[in-house]
Amino acid sequence: MSESYSDSFRWSKLVTLVLIGVIPAFSGALINPTIPAIQQTFSHLPNSETLAQLVSTTSAWVVIVVAPLTGYLLDKYARKPILVAAVVIYGAGTSAAFFLDSIYLILATRILDGIAVGALMVTVPTLIADYYSGGRRESVMGYYGAVQAGGGAVAAVLGGYIAGSLGWRYIFLVFAGALLFVPPILRLLPEPDVSDVQRDDEVSRREALAKIMRESPVKVVAGIYALVLFGMLTNNLIMIEVPYYLQGSLDVSDSQTGLIISSVMVTGVVMASLYGRIKPHFRHVTLVTAGFALAATGFILLSSVQAFPLVFVGIIVAGGMGFGLLLPTVNDWIASIVQQEVRGRALSGVTMMMYGGFALSPFAPMPLVDAFGRVGMLRTVGFLQLVVAGALVVVWSVSRSTASPTPDRSLSDD
Length: 414
Prior knowledge:
By secondary structure, this protein is mostly helical. 75% of the residues lie in helices and 0% in strands. 49% of the residues are buried.
């Protein structure tokens, strides 16, 4: 590490690092309420509805490509310059859409947004893992996850207010506020003292992957990635499918739907902020299993009853409690089982799978919707989550029974 353990927990550094989580949280949540207004502005263009939706979704696809590249650059070069570059690209590039009259040029700025968000989503957890260890790393990962969830809730409300009072273009000026992070980053965040092995030009991507496979439990890493993909895919159904169910089947108003989704985000903030206190008492796999079990319970409940109070409880349990711990848990889990010199690349897989789940969530459930209807799809997702939770219990039990007396890095020693 770049600093001694006693010096590493400076509040100025911690607050700067954690608050950067607001930047990617604002990326989509701030834009989504403005999509209908953007579509109306460019309604004279062919496929204006699709183009308007792409303003929200384009960056997610870019993140999937940028995340692994960022991991490679983090491990090969330095962390801090990449962080500064990402913040500048985000603040300057994304806010440029305010001045543009072409939706195609606005979409180009969303590509810049995806580049910046992909870099930030990998760099910040990597820096947290570099600066902190043990219980402190677990706590800071939890704070970071809480800020992301809370930032999304604030952004959704702020985006709707700005779009309604000033116009959708002014949304993009908010992104320029990210530039305020540059001075504290330069002053308060030191470059971690990482081994020079990853700076060597001879350490290629293939060699780094081989190192992860040779010295880390590759099945565990791949399994975590798969869990993130499935978890984020199903979690995003709360945001994109449940509102249709609420308004179509239960006659819930738009404003009530917004409050419900905000409640999910607030619950996620609470769960993520508690991660540092919960983790010392449980293994990573236990927390992930509990998360999927809670999500399954919530999905099955909300899709099996018609009473709004119970549906609301199901939504909170599924989207807030079930997945509130997922992001800090998986980032901390990956950081704890891979070597520091390949940590950036390993954590980039979490970001790639997370945004892959976001990108697939509008399309993947369609066969289930066609077969069972929207309510049946949500219930089926709940049962699939329950199967995943049960499979994790079985894998954990088998790993415990077959582990050596002094396991190094395994499911039983996380």
